Amino acid sequence: MEPPTISFFELFHCLKGLTFALLLLSSSFFGTFFFLMPLMPFAIFRPNLFRQLTDFLIGFWLVLPSSLVEFMFGVRIHLQGDKIDRNKPSLIIMNHRTRLDWLFFWNALWRMDPWLLTTEKISPKSTLMFIPGAGWAMATNAFLFLNRNFAFDRFRIDRMISYYSQTSRNYQLLLFPEGTDKCPIATKRSERFAEKNGLVKYKYLLHPRTVGFVHILKRMRKEKYVDFIYDVSVAYGGRIIQSEFDLLLLGLTPAHVHFLVQKIPISLIPEDDEQLEQWLNKKWAEKEEILRRFYSTGEFLPTDANTEKSFQKTELSPQAFHLQLIISAVWLALTAVWTIIFFGFLSAQIRWSCTLLTIIYFVGLQLYFGGFELFLARLAAAQSVVSKESVVKSKGSEANNTGNNEASEKHNKMNGQ
């Protein structure tokens, strides 16, 4: 049985949650101001270098929030199953129990391979891109923001997956096929959908939205940009904190977060749209059974009764733990230094002029292009067209030169005769 969802708070925990929020907002804002803004010329003139630098900087900044939820709130992460290969482009699908699943998943990725934080891309709700500092950093990191409306999201999906492919870097895209977290409202909506369509009512899941999943996978296949699908199941122990607002205002996290990762080669996934929908629905039925067993036994067990195989457990290594401490301390120290410089050394005119410039830059790109990440994608597409035209012209020039040389040789031979 699932643990209860917490909705009450104590003053001490509330102060802890607000401190957590203040640290992240200030670190992300000053990081954007002092680190990302100076890199912006590279986005136009050296886009590959820009992508490498921002993937590295933002990826390892993610160590800070994922570390703080462990060190400040005491959440314990448990990981079973297959490891994700950061060298292969992949699609990760996960049930969306709470609005914090993606945050705790960073802790799981760190346990598998710290570099996965630099290659994983998530698909958050588009409203998050408007958060000053944090939203701008997510856009710079080329996250796939979605409105949860396929008519609006289709263009954004196609553009961003093409961009990932054009970077020649291997990313792992995290998708929540359910479309939203399993809050009471979404649960009732899913149950009504099940009744209307003669489907089983899930206790631990929402019925997945197959249209977006099918389109994303087809686009990744078209771009030859998917080698594996990773099916991730997330479950909670002790208590459930439903949203980021609850984390900040209640100052609490779940006591335990459990992840099960199952690796599936893309060659085993059907290509037909209808068969893909059936495959995803079957996966969700299996996931419901996996979660039912988990909440009955306290661990993830294979659904195949004929196998004695157990899922491999991955623990946080001492080296990864020490590196986590060091990186978190560096970011906290940088945040303190940036704060002192911003308020203590910069004049009010410079301070607010640069702040206004940063706001105008990101908000302007959001309004004109739909987001900084789409601006990057458009730049990459334009540069790809120019590159292809250059190749065509080069081949045409070579062909003309070859033809001229052959004509010249023929003319010389005739003169010689």
UniProtKB/TrEMBL annotation:
Transmembrane region(s): 20-44, 56-79, 100-117, 129-146, 321-344, 350-369
Compositional bias segments (type: Basic and acidic residues): 407-417
Keywords, in A-Z order: Acyltransferase, Membrane, Transferase, Transmembrane, Transmembrane helix
Molecular-function GO terms, alphabetical: acyltransferase activity
Biased composition (Polar residues): 397-406
Pfam families registered for this protein in UniProt: Acyltransf_C (PF16076), Acyltransferase (PF01553)
Protein name (database record): Phospholipid/glycerol acyltransferase domain-containing protein
